Amino acid sequence: MNLPAKLLLSLKPWRNATTWHIAFSGGLDSTVLLHLLAHLAKAQSLPALRAIHVHHGLQAVADAWPEHCRAMCEALGVPLQVVRVQVQPGASLERAARDARYAALSEVTRANEVLLTAQHLDDQAETLLFRLLRGAGVRGLSGMPRQRPLGEGYLLRPLLDATRAELEAYAAEHQLSWIEDPSNQDRQFSRNYLRHQVFPVLTSRWPQAMATMARSAAHLSEAQGLLDELAQIDLCHARTCSEFDWLGLPSLELASLVKLSVARQRNALSHWLEPLTSLPDSDHWSGWADLCNASGDARPIWRLADGELHRAGGRIWWLSGGWLRRSPPVGTWGEPSLPLALPDNGVLSLSGQIPDGPLQIRYREGGEVMELPGRGHRDLKRLLNESGVPLFVRGRLPLLFKGGQLLAVANLPGLDGSAAGGWNLHWQPMGEDQGLS
User: Fold this and answer.
1) Can you tell me which residues bind ATP (predicted)?
2) Which of helix, strand or coil describes residue 312?
3) CATH T-level topology, domain 3-121+136-184
């Protein structure tokens, strides 16, 4: 099958998208992809084509590349957008540049649009070997996925079945010109070292090494799909309802997880955590065992890259963002008839017959006492224990005072004002978009 036919077949399910964005670096691979699509569009009914060039500003020679890309796109009749990004300093320049690039590409990809990138079969083989040398698991060894969500749309890699040699042959046939990035020759970068030093040796002994390694990545991708299905089955049993679902926090029932084998626990938890945080490496999974095995009265916390797992009330809870910051003091509630925005802690409102003021909002400091009808004075700590309030919530739970008297505790039946005064103190915690990193 020739290259244009192979590309069209790969993109067949996406012909109804409104726009195909092409990630256009100006290098060989993306130049071939752009040229292929521009010429196919003359004979085929394709979505609107747009190119995007991400300028990292990492080397002086790169300043000339946007102009080269503009000239190429003008010749092919494809609109071009140039986006300049700031690459954050860090241990891996490759990774930082990639993160900045994909953040920019994510911004331009809207609903019912796709972003096309030009990675090919040789890139897939390099990815597999690179990740194998880093000790990756099945997910990592699955290589680059053919498609994945990006922004409001999807990222597609339609050339993963094509070899670098095929792209070079197409470029030579059509006399294409492209940018040669000097950094691609720098052997200090791991991928360049593999490409220039390792793969030539491998392919001299095993000519089909690239294709067979890419095939292995496909097998591992299928295996990962089965593991994901198993994770969904296991998570279905753990996603039980909780009386504290109103917190809006991701949580799972611990008992359902610990009944599983250790391998299935890891698989289910990895699947659940994957959209929330960078997953821990093998050495750091000991934190999960510590969380499970801690005594009943302990407050175990497993700290991960983008948040924390807490154990409370027979469940594990994911906390991140504002949930990990201490809520600033509030003070007087000047207009109790209006909702009150709590710094880093959601929104508070009163409904029903609002008590006379002045009213204050405070957070628990210890030693608070509340008077309840028919029960007299009770320690707030005991009342929170009776209600089963998770420990990580107690310091954030808004308390309504009048003078020095505690009138209500938000959201807790019998303590929220409804029993004594016919009114209700309601707290809407931070939404998931605020609470998640």
Assistant:
1) 25-30
2) strand
3) Rossmann fold (3.40.50)
Cβ atoms 137, 223 nearer than 8 A: no
Q: pLDDT tens for residues 344-395? A: 899 999 988 888 878 999 999 989 999 887 788 899 999 999 999 999 999 9
State the binding site for ATP: 25-30
Which part of the chain is CATH 3.40.50.620?
Answer: 3-121+136-184
Listed residue (430, 437, 431, 429) closest to 320, CA to CA? 437
> Domain 243-319 falls in which CATH fold?
3.30.465
Ramachandran angles phi, psi of 115, nearest 5°: -110, 125
Residue 175 burial by Cβ neighbours in a 10 Å radius (0-12, 13-18, 19+): exposed
Q: What are phi and psi of 60, to 5 degrees?
A: -60, -40
User: Roughly how many angstroms between the first and final C-alpha of the chain, as a whole number?
Assistant: 45
HSE (side-chain half, CA atoms, 13 Å) at 165: 4
Residues making up the annotated binding site are: 25-30
Residue 88's pLDDT is 77
pLDDT, one tens digit per residue, over 233-286 is 999 999 999 999 999 999 999 999 999 999 999 999 999 999 999 888 888 898
Coil vs helix vs strand at 369: strand
d(CA 333, CA 349): 10
Q: What pLDDT, on the 0 to 100 scale, is given for residue 421?
A: 67
Sign of CA dihedral 198, 204, 205, 206: positive
Q: Where in the chain is the domain with CATH 3.30.465.60?
A: 243-319
Radius of gyration over alpha carbons of the chain, in Å? 28
| Neighbour count for residue 38 (Cβ, 10 Å) | 19
Strand-pairing partners, residue 206, are none
Task: Classify each residue of 409-427 as buried b or exposed e, where b means 16 or more C-beta atoms within 10 Å of its C-beta.
Answer: bbbbeebbbbebbebbbbb
Q: Give the pairing of strands 331-333 and 359-362.
A: antiparallel
Question: What residues form DSSP beta bridges with 23?
Answer: 52
Distances from the Cα of 90 to the Cα of 94, 101, 120, 164, 194, angstroms = 10, 15, 28, 30, 22
Kindly give, in sequence order, each residue whose CB lies less than 8 Å from that of residue 426, ignoring residues fewer than 6 positions away: 348, 349, 350, 351, 410, 411, 416
The CA distance from 289 to 251, in Å, is 17
Strand pairing report for 80-84 and 48-55: parallel
β-strands 359-362, 369-372 pairing: unpaired
SS3 51: strand
Q: DSSP string of 76-100?
A: HT--EEEEE-PPPP-S-HHHHHHHH
Residues 56 and 213: their CA atoms lie apart, in Å, by: 31
